[in-house]
């Protein structure tokens, strides 16, 4: 089932999410719904807070970036078929020189800005069977993970912008929170009584 995506301005997007246990109610159904919601909105990642749940869980599939001609063969290979679920993740290391990349967010439609992040990460997490993993990612794959990880930490990509950039997009952000945005997926706006 496709869930409505929570729009900018909803307090759940600014909350630090909580770990879950394997007996979390209807976990399999939630995971399935999150995949369906992400693909339905043409996203490459989706975190539980974006569907209104303050829990440490997100899904990613950055494979659409594999078509980018500027990528190396190794980067392309890492992105192709990288469909992953992360439960209770912790980024244990971020290394390398920060680089800029234009980011967007399903909760903040029609806003794209350059965000600086480190290129290499190590992350510990459990999968849907609560089996523990420690993995290292680089480049765009790392960036997509960092973006979704920020969501479960209560951080939005717009929080990482300069104060000038924040002032320039303030009007757009206010409009999003009021539902004055045109999207082709279901959203739930904080300043409206009903989602649309």
UniProtKB/TrEMBL annotation:
<keyword id="KW-0408">Iron</keyword>
<comment type="similarity">
    <text>Belongs to the polypeptide deformylase family.</text>
</comment>
<protein>
    <recommendedName>
        <fullName>Peptide deformylase</fullName>
        <ecNumber>3.5.1.88</ecNumber>
    </recommendedName>
</protein>
<comment type="function">
    <text>Removes the formyl group from the N-terminal Met of newly synthesized proteins. Requires at least a dipeptide for an efficient rate of reaction. N-terminal L-methionine is a prerequisite for activity but the enzyme has broad specificity at other positions.</text>
</comment>
<feature type="binding site">
    <location>
        <position position="151"/>
    </location>
    <ligand>
        <name>Fe cation</name>
    </ligand>
</feature>
<keyword id="KW-0378">Hydrolase</keyword>
<feature type="binding site">
    <location>
        <position position="147"/>
    </location>
    <ligand>
        <name>Fe cation</name>
    </ligand>
</feature>
<feature type="active site">
    <location>
        <position position="148"/>
    </location>
</feature>
<keyword id="KW-0648">Protein biosynthesis</keyword>
<keyword id="KW-0479">Metal-binding</keyword>
<dbReference type="GO" id="GO:0042586">
    <property type="term" value="F:peptide deformylase activity"/>
</dbReference>
<dbReference type="InterPro" id="IPR023635">
    <property type="entry name" value="Peptide_deformylase"/>
</dbReference>
<dbReference type="GO" id="GO:0006412">
    <property type="term" value="P:translation"/>
</dbReference>
<dbReference type="InterPro" id="IPR036821">
    <property type="entry name" value="Peptide_deformylase_sf"/>
</dbReference>
<dbReference type="Pfam" id="PF01327">
    <property type="entry name" value="Pep_deformylase"/>
</dbReference>
<feature type="binding site">
    <location>
        <position position="105"/>
    </location>
    <ligand>
        <name>Fe cation</name>
    </ligand>
</feature>
<dbReference type="GO" id="GO:0046872">
    <property type="term" value="F:metal ion binding"/>
</dbReference>
